[in-house]
Design brief:
This protein is an alpha+beta fold and 99 residues long. The two termini are 42 Å apart. The longest helix has 11 residues, at 12-22. It has two helices and four strands. The strands form two sheets. Strands 1-4 form a two-stranded antiparallel sheet. A two-stranded antiparallel ribbon has the order 2-3. It has one domain.
């Protein structure tokens, strides 16, 4: 804990309540939706008959790559520059020499 600041003005009761809030630890238990075990697949029947401008419609996904879930990955057909952050490479255990 950091001592000093506004917490020095608290009463013993308020400090005890503050410590209880700080030291509460709960295990995060994921709660899955009923349909989450169903795989999502696409085939040609799901495609529209025609698309006026295919690169105009972006798609944001959360892929799993090498047992690591990435969040908010933008997929669009119009970019010519792909950027990946160093933190992602570290999570995937990819060395910089492999780039």
């Amino acid at each position: 804990m950091i001592y000093g600041g506004p917490s020095t003005q608290l009463t013993a009761r308020q400090r005890k309540r503050e410590r209880r809030e700080v030291f509460v630890a709960r295990m995060a238990v994921p709660q899955y939706l009923n349909w989450s075990s169903t795989p999502i697949t696409f085939n040609r029947d799901d495609l529209p008959d025609r698309v006026v401008a295919p690169s105009v419609y972006p798609l944001v996904v959360d892929p799993i790559i090498v047992n690591t879930r990435l969040s908010k990955v933008l997929m669009d057909g119009g970019t010519s520059l792909n950027i990946i952050y160093l933190e992602i490479l570290d999570l995937l255990d990819i060395e910089r020499a492999q780039l």
